[in-house]
Amino acid sequence: MLPSLPLALALLLSTSSAVIAAPKPHVAAGQSIPMYKRSPRRNATEMGIWAKNHREMLLSKYGGSPNHKRSSGTNLITNQNADSSYFGSLAIGTPPVSYNVILDTGSSDLWVAESSCITGCGSVPKFNPTQSSTFKNGTQSFSITYGTGQAAGTLAEDTVQMAGFSVANQIFAVCNQVSSGLLSNPVSGLLGLAWNTIASSGATPLWQTLAQSGAWDSPLMAFQLTRFVDDQNAEALEAGGSFTMGFVNQSLYTGDIDFQNIPSGQESWWILPVTGMTVQGNSVTLPTGSESYSAIDTGTTLVGGPSSAIQAIFAQIPGSAPGTGNFENYFTYPCNTQVNVTMTFGGRSWPISPSDFKLTQVSDSQCVGAFFEMTTGSNAPAWIVGDTFLKNVYSVFRFSPPSIGFATLSSTATSQNDVNGVVPTPTIGSVVLVSATSTGSNRLHNAATATSSPARAFNVFTVVVVTSLFIGFSIL
What we know:
By secondary structure, the chain is mainly β. The chain folds into two domains: 248 residues, Cathepsin D, subunit A, domain 1 (Beta Barrel); 163 residues, Cathepsin D, subunit A, domain 1, CATH 2.40.70. The chain has seven helices and 27 strands. It is globular and about 65 Å long. It starts with 7 loop residues before the first helix and ends in a 41-residue tail after the last strand. The N terminus and C terminus are likely disordered.
């Protein structure tokens, strides 16, 4: 999710997201940690509120080589609220303490609630600067807007660890003011995984520091997300898949990865043009040029797009109609219709499961689709492609050359759908770490005061990638 995403979406599905106080057992190198998800069911009224807030959130968000090198790592993800969000863990400070954060390829800032937080932090675990010997406080203010709320505080530096990697002097924000409902246990903040060009803090994101320093075997990161939206018995938290840094897990996909380059000069969000789409086997006419640009966003649950394209999609579904009330800008369709959609981004076509296309049922016969109309700001991509699509592919985000790749999920990956598993927990232990020190523009004294970068709000109903932290994990 990008820094300015409407917050309301996070409220609806994030009631079960709470940052887990970090246990501190010893973790041997080579051990991996799983992710989980929460998923209490919502009725049609609640889903209507969520859908309205989700759309508004997106409009706000987009509107406006050392010794003992560990070169790749895996974080297991937690699926929260039946695919509404996926969150994970990282560790901050010396000694390290773990915090659950939303992993968001649609934004670029790292921030966590601080122990001195005076509003909106409730019972979530909070970062205490006085307990870290490597913490460096700053004076520059930070503020990021999420449509219906914001987080504010100051920029700081400390050691941040994730998946066996460590970055010293990482700039992040410690927030003492958070809008009510923006955070909910067990989530303490957000980790942006987009490019530094849209960072409200002006800092280089953690992932980008690692990628450009040569700390990874391969300059890329990858996601596999599980599906529980069609499981009526899904628990609030379920195993959510995996997030890897520095390598791709070949057991989770088959065939080749279809890489498509990000348009030249567009390294901001992870952008790809939407070049084709079919609905029920029929091609849909789509905008071209920059109007076809999409942000591939792990922090967003659904798919938003230009009105003309969304209307053309539902025109191929007999019995569909514009939504009303909280479902305005969405469309309803007969629940007994299995909707088959494919999307193309310059290469192969990728099918979306009918289960993912169906957002919710609102009457005995009518359902609401997961594609909705939206108009983004002039500098933002016209399409926001979230987990409705990403659950159907193995997705790879490559630093060099800047590109995004998709591959077909393997049976190993799809067999994790709708299967109640062990919910991952954040752990911290002594490990051999790759240490990449933040330098240059990523230093605190050079970071720009956070202002009006395309901040994106995370919605916890959005599929938020949750990665269990293992400081010193081993490759799966």
